[in-house]
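Give me the 3D structure for SchA/CurD.
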Amino acid sequence: MTRGDVMQRFALMYRIKPGSQAAVRKLLSEYEAPQQITDGAARLLGTSVFMKDDVVVRMIEIEGDLETVARHLSRQPSIQRLERELDRYVAEKRDMSTPEGAREFFRKALMETLITRTAPPSEPAFSGR
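Predicted structure for SchA/CurD (129 residues):
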């Protein structure tokens, strides 16, 4: 999955228990941001989280290999705390405490990328000189 320094987007979708929207909204909007740099081979560029009724979509933008970034994130204390707290509200039981459990969750929750379109880099303004 490595594409060098090309930005990639991935999305995970999962359902939460009915009536847990307020608690999940609070958890996902207030958790401490993880360290963005991994071992130099990959980098987390950004994260967005969306929720509609009982569906949560977490989108990440990365440079490098998804598995490297996922492994890095799984070691971050803020992410570990968040995932432990989210376990109470996720509709389908999951095990985020082990690398194997996290991999299985990612396998099930990862959405298929159909297309990504980005604007070309903008041209520098002509100075007239």
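The mean pLDDT is 87. Let me know if you want a second pass.
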